[in-house]
Amino acid sequence: MRNTVDGVRWLGHAVLAIGLTLLTQIGGLAWLIALFFKRRLLAFAVIYSALSLATLAVAPSFGRVPLPCGPSGELRSQSWLYCAMHRHYVTPELRALALQFAREMDRQHPGTVTQTLDAGFPFWDEFPLLPHISHDDGRKLDLALYYTDQTGTCLPHETRSPIGYWAFEDGPSRCPPQWLSLRWDLTWLQRLWPNRPLDEERTATALRLLVNDARVSRLFVEPHLADRLGVQGARLRFQGCRAARHDDHIHIQL
Ligand SMILES: [Zn+2]
């Protein structure tokens, strides 16, 4: 009986460590080290924080740098969670592109803050940032859309959903409903979001700047959104019917 209980307990720890690794890359290791301590949750918080700081120093030797996490500047993380979970690492080239793009957005539409969502993990290629299977080399970045309030005034850094994802813009789709697909409609969630219309002017500027940037190899956005905003270009692609919808955010890759 005792062996069974111990077995279940260790299985629980293993599942938790794997889950934390998939979500944050470093969290699983922090949990395994914390198991050696009596006050496990406190130990986990301290070890996780220490590993996060060490990651800032070590990641550049893996070719990754963090995107800005602070509360000021033209480029910011949409939520502190992306930074706390180490999901904001990119290659130096992509960080330079994102900073330059955000500055240009602010120049063309003063006061604009460009917000980053999921980017990549700090270590190793081919370690996907779930659920984005392609975000595995620091060369991919998701950006939040730009919104206005109900009177049409720019909202500098508010999104519709609290994490920037899953507040979909309606539009015609060529994708039939299907199983085993990451194309979630999350219809039940949509009515929870505040009424913040898409800032078509700023979002169109953003798409135009990115489509015309030679460093960007691909930009994913739903075809109906690109049509609505009148943006075209060879780099503008449809991600396919099995991948996540791209009318709640913009995906760019080098
Ligand atoms: Zn993406």
What do you see in this structure?
This protein is α/β, with parallel strands linked by helices and 254 residues long. The protein folds into 2 domains: 2-61, no CATH class; 63-253, Muramoyl-pentapeptide Carboxypeptidase, domain 2, CATH 3.30.1380.10. 37% of the residues lie in helices and 11% in strands. The chain contains 8 helices and 10 strands. The strands form 4 sheets. A 4-stranded mixed β-sheet has the order 5-10-8-9, covered by helices on one side. It has a two-stranded antiparallel sheet with strand order 1-3. A hairpin with a 5-residue loop joins strand 6 and strand 7 (154-155). The longest helix is centred in the N-terminal third of the chain and has 23 residues, at 2-24. Bound molecules: zinc ion. Zinc ion binds at residues 132, 135, 140, 142, 251.
Summarize the structure.
The protein is an alpha/beta fold and 254 residues long.
**Structural Rg:** 20 Å
Can you give the mean pLDDT? 90
Which strand order spans the largest sheet, edge to edge or round the barrel?
A: 5-10-8-9
User: How far apart, in Å, are the first and last alpha carbons?
Assistant: 55 Å
Using the 3D structure, state the CATH architecture of the largest domain. Answer: 2-Layer Sandwich
Bound molecules: zinc ion
Task: Give the quaternary arrangement of the chains.
Answer: single chain
Shape: globular
Largest sheet: 4 strands, mixed
Structural class: alpha/beta
By DSSP, the count of extended strands is: 10
User: Which percent range describes the beta-strand content?
Assistant: 5-15%
CATH fold name of the largest domain: Muramoyl-pentapeptide Carboxypeptidase, domain 2
- The portion of residues assigned to helices is 25-40%
Instruction: Count the domains.
Output: 2
CATH top level assignment of the largest domain? Alpha Beta
Report the order of strands and helices: HHHEEHEHEEEEHHEHEE
> How many helices in DSSP terms?
8
Query: Low-confidence parts lasting 5 or more residues at pLDDT below 50?
Result: none
